[in-house]
Amino acid sequence: VAHIHCEEVFGILGENYTFPVKINKKLVEIIWMKNRDKVAEWEEQSQAVYFTSLKNRGSLNNETGSLTIFNLEKNDTATYVLEYLPFDENNLRLTFILTVLDPPSEPTISCNVSDDSLVLTCAADFKGPLTYTWDFGSITDYKQQQQNIVFLKKNVDASEKVMCFIEVSQTAKSSEFSLAECFP
């Protein structure tokens, strides 16, 4: 019985990306395919061999089976299949659908004033999930609604500044916002 594993993954343009392979068996043979082309191959007692687009940008870990692509390019977006032969077993395969995304834009912070609070929203142009964190300096009275939305009490000191940080993979960006901008 073939074990089918398919996972959607994403990497950031210009970063290095390692496929999240978890194999806890001794491997004797590894073949990585990109779409239908072989891009990396390893057999026991020999060095890994790289083909086509990964010739100078690939690294195979023959203990875990994982493949690292250095300096991701747009055309690395593809379906990758790992076929591996564990010791004493039949061929197994894992499929990864890799999408290479542009890095996120610098975040922007906007402010809306409601009855009793200031609503700060941090946003960045990015097609995947982002992690948001905030730094409020000396402000202690705030409620976090979602990662990217925060409510401050309206009586906050308008001279205060807040920062929003976004993070994805190995990329982090931030921006600062003066609360004075909430009060025209």
TrEMBL record:
Q: What is its main location?
A: membrane
Concerning CDD domains, the annotation shows: IgV_CD2_like_N
Compartments (UniProt record): Membrane
Kindly list the GO CC terms recorded for this protein: membrane
The alphabetized UniProt keywords are: Glycoprotein, Membrane, Signal
Keyword Transferase included in the entry's annotation: no
Write the protein's name.
LFA3 protein
Species assigned in the record: Crypturellus soui
High-level lineage: Eukaryota, Metazoa, Chordata, Craniata, Vertebrata
Recorded name of the encoding gene: Cd58
